Amino acid sequence: MNQATTPTMSSDNCAADSAQATSAWTSKRRDFLRMMGYGAGAAALGPMLAACGSSNAQSTTEALRAELVKDEAFWSSVQGMFVLNPQKTFMNIGTAGSMPTVVLDEFSSLNRAKAVDCLNGYSNLLDLRKAAAPGFGVDPDELAFSANTSSGMCHAILGIDWEPGDVVVTTNHEHGGGDTPLKIATNRYGIEVSRIPMPVGNNQTAATYVNLFDERIRALKAQGKRVRAMMWSSPTYKTGTMLPIADLMTVVKAHQLISIVDGAHLPGMMAYNYADLGMDFMSGAGHKWQCGPGSTGILVVRNKIRASNPLPLPKWYPIHTSSYSDLERTTNGTATYDIAATITSCGSVHTPMFASLVRACAMWDELGRKKVETYDLALSAYLKEKIVERWGIASLYAPKDDPKLVSALTSFNPFQNKDDVMNSQKSSQFVARMASDYPQGFQIRNSNFPVIGAAAEHYGVRLSTHLWHDATDVDLVVDAMWDLSKKMA
Ligand SMILES: Cc1ncc(COP(=O)(O)O)c(C=O)c1O
């Protein structure tokens, strides 16, 4: 939430499309209801749904804004829990979150206590895992602490008993955090990586991804390939597209594959129940949306057979541990050993760091993970609708209408001359000027990615909306981006 409420940029803002025709409302309202109905629990959603049905004179944008401001006092108090520099508007949580005061205090007092009493960190942190696991819907033996998302991806991928010729099916929008261990496994164990070109924009649905993965796997099998695993990001860091875990797990199960999710952005953004989703590995960051300290991550590992995924547990060896159990993995609903202890425990760890991460998790549990998710997604939905009003639907890289594909990352082409998005320098200038040219000091980022059929990579800009933002921040950033896009045209 930025203190400034009045945009100071020139007033050539385009308001042309903001008054949407009432005739268009019905389908728009349906989209909105679908989106909100998917992303949030009934309790958190009740007021939004009621408001949506209350008037057909409002545009979707207006309805979203009205809902966002309804709980303003609550979200202002949440904003007050952070120590963020008020001179800037931090909209790059996808890269780094910020520890709230309670977490900073916990960190500081535990650091001091550790120093005062010369404490060590030889522990598998069971008590902390017990405290954090329920918030993610898993047992303590299924939630490990890692150093970050990349570290969790290394634990997952490099621990698998790969055979030469095993194929991992993934996408061409993955992050280096997952791609690097895949590359190591390629060189070291002779695996092959098959990449699906990612669609971008609003014209896609969850079924698109089910079909893309299923068809690729079938084609590989028809060539005699041994497809062993699927790996994907939910959401991708490039466009913010939420690859739908539950839907993709149907493909995983149909083809009896190992499932590895790069969920860097999931902890603290989405209120997922990972036992219900049933993937083998989900590697998330503790330091992004969850707002824990740097060098913290949450790695969820399937460690028992549940109805959500009846496939056998993959054979897996720890690659970074001081606690190695050579027990076989279980074939039923009872774990044979605490795999999360094996992953968490490696020499003396910095316990205050993980205790502080767990304090952040407790804060989210107290706020209500579903409530945070609903708010983050509603802010992003509002931002996407405003982008569509100004730049048109074709400017979005992040989809907005399929509720299963939305995240709190919003990525789009901000340029008046659409081809400028292929100009890396111009895109970087756009990001830099959003920070320097506007009093709100907007911190956003860009990322480059291939687009099917495009002559060159696109350098879209990406914004993160989280619990310290409000509707006014979205209004201001959209006005600033519109103003800057005109100036850079
Ligand atoms: C999808 C994705 N995977 C992995 C990473 C790496 O995250 P970490 O710094 O937690 O290792 C990022 C970072 O932005 C990301 O967006």
Automatic annotation (TrEMBL):
Under the GO molecular function aspect, what terms does this record hold? transaminase activity
PROSITE patterns reported in the protein's UniProt record: TAT
Swiss-Prot/TrEMBL keywords: Aminotransferase, Pyridoxal phosphate, Transferase
Q: Which Pfam families match?
A: Aminotran_5 (PF00266)
| The keyword Transferase is assigned to this record | yes
Which residue numbers delimit the Aminotransferase class V domain? 129-409
Question: Known Gene3D superfamilies for this protein?
Answer: Aspartate Aminotransferase, domain 1 (3.90.1150.10), Type I PLP-dependent aspartate aminotransferase-like (Major domain) (3.40.640.10)
Protein name per Swiss-Prot or TrEMBL: Aminotransferase class V-fold PLP-dependent enzyme
